[in-house]
Amino acid sequence: MALLPLGDFFSIVFMAFALGMDAFSVGLGIGMQAIRLKRIFIIGLTVGIFHIVMPFIGLILGTLISNKIEGIAILGAGLLLCGIGFQMILQTIQKKESPLLAPAGFGLFVFALTVSLDSFSVGLSLGLSGLATVLAICLFGLFSTLLTWTALLIGRRTHHLLGTYSELLGGSILFGFGLHILF
Question: What global pTM score does this model have?
Answer without folding.
Answer: 0.69
